[in-house]
Specification:
- Strands 1, 2, 3, 4, 5, 6, 7, 8, 9 and 10 form a ten-stranded mixed β-sheet that branches.
- Helix 2 crosses helix 6, helix 3 crosses helix 5 and helix 6 runs parallel beside helix 13.
- 37% of the residues lie in helices and 15% in strands.
- It is an alpha+beta fold.
Length: 410
């Protein structure tokens, strides 16, 4: 599908439309340099587009999905010159030059940067972030359409459709979300032929002690439950009603303790059992509610987390649906396809999109904390517009902070 070259409005100050100075507070230059170092992608000679500028440029692409490559770069470079950055003297490259610069950079530095800086920003004591002693997070996944190119289709596949195949190849990703701030973190991506239940196994290791993770019924298996449990986090997952969970110990709140097994053979021999707590409940007077909902939790004591409270808390899992909608509709734009034409640049663009979403959500968290508001009550779309239009009052790329940079795994 041809993309119409879109420009920003004429006669506007460039600083009304580019605000990477604000974003660099959440994605500092020191972290960018460290990500480039561990991935071996530093600029070895002075180029028209140095590697660190290309990193910020990829993030800017996520903010301006409907603008052309050159227009976004023009905004970025003019903003840098307006700020008086003596190192920002590159000219606006053509489309091929931009593509070459992005190809030299690749996806690895963006993923390393994402893994280093994108993390929960709230505290359990803040509105929506905690439940009793726990920091509440959820896990879920979604898909994104990518450019209809042969290499993309070969790398990522196409989802099935009622008649043949989908019009666009797709990538699939799974993320954790911090419920109170809607920060998406620990994300992993693959082709659409990789299931969410498979991809979540790469996300689970990011759970930590003190977290309470909510998940839908499609993620449950004995293996994944044990994998998540061994991180030290507590779990509250919905499960399918047909799972055999005979009551062993009834509890005062109506829940009961049971055991799960990896197979029927293990069940018969009563080996490799894991104790769980089961919560069955109904939603009375709710249109289209299912006859029965069943939750499984690692919290075996009813007094630590009463069943009615956990049943109510589980429905906070929908916070991740809202976060995914922000990413796909308000930031990316409805019906917008990721523009990159090769698999490596698709991966790069995806990580830039996730970094942009984090930067905006982190800024919203700070604004809410200063005003005493719940971040849920702030408009994400308005925040995106503010970031796009914010006038820069400080350097776009701040110098490295004192002390060691954030650690980045090679």
């Amino acid at each position: 599908m041809a993309r119409t070259v879109a420009e920003l409005p004429k006669g506007s100050r460039i600083t009304d439309y580019i605000s990477l100075g604000v974003l660099s507070e959440r994605i500092p230059r020191a972290a960018v340099d460290e990500a480039l170092r561990v991935s071996g992608r530093q600029s070895v000679r002075q180029r028209d587009l140095p590697a660190h500028v290309v990193v910020y440029y990829v993030i800017a692409l996520a903010l301006y999905m409907q603008s052309s490559y050159r227009e976004v770069l023009r905004c970025l470079l003019e903003g840098l010159r307006w700020l008086g950055d003596p190192s920002a003297r590159p000219r606006v490259a053509g489309k091929s030059g931009i593509s070459q610069a992005r190809t030299r950079l690749g996806a690895e530095p963006l993923q390393a940067l994402h893994d280093a800086v994108v993390r929960p920003v709230g505290q359990p004591s803040e509105p929506g972030c905690g439940y009793r002693e726990w920091h509440v997070v959820s896990v879920d996944g979604s898909t994104l359409d990518v450019a209809d190119e042969v290499p993309n289709a070969a790398a990522f596949g196409r989802p099935g459709a009622s008649r043949g195949a989908s019009a666009f190849p797709q990538i699939r990703f799974v993320s954790l979300v911090e419920n109170g701030t809607r920060v998406l973190f620990a994300s992993r991506m693959a082709g659409c032929n990789v299931s969410e239940s498979r991809l979540v196994e790469e996300v689970i290791p990011s759970l930590k002690a003190g977290m309470l993770c909510l998940a839908d019924r499609n993620f449950f298996s004995y293996g994944r439950w044990n994998q998540a449990r061994t991180t030290g986090a507590d779990l509250l997952w919905r499960i399918k009603k047909n799972l055999r969970l005979p009551p062993e110990t009834p509890l005062a709140d109506g829940s009961y303790v049971s055991r799960i097994y990896p197979s029927d053979k293990d069940r018969r021999h009563r080996r490799r059992a894991v104790r769980v707590r089961v919560i069955d409940y109904q939603l009375s007077g709710v249109d289209k509610a299912e006859p029965l909902y069943r939750l499984l939790t690692t919290v075996l004591e009813a007094d630590r987390a009463p069943a009615p409270e956990l049943a109510t808390l589980y429905h906070e899992r929908w916070e991740i649906e809202t976060a995914l909608d922000e990413l796909k509709t308000h930031l990316r734009g409805p019906r917008i396809v990721l523009r990159s034409k090769t698999p490596e640049l698709v991966r790069q663009e995806f990580w830039g999109l996730m970094l942009a979403h984090f930067a905006i959500r982190s800024l919203m968290h700070d604004a809410a904390r200063q005003s005493g508001d719940d971040p849920d009550q702030l408009s994400y779309l308005h925040a995106v517009r503010v970031v796009r239009r914010n006038i820069i009052t400080h350097r776009a790329f701040s110098p490295p902070r004192s002390g060691p940079p954030p650690s980045v795994r090679p």
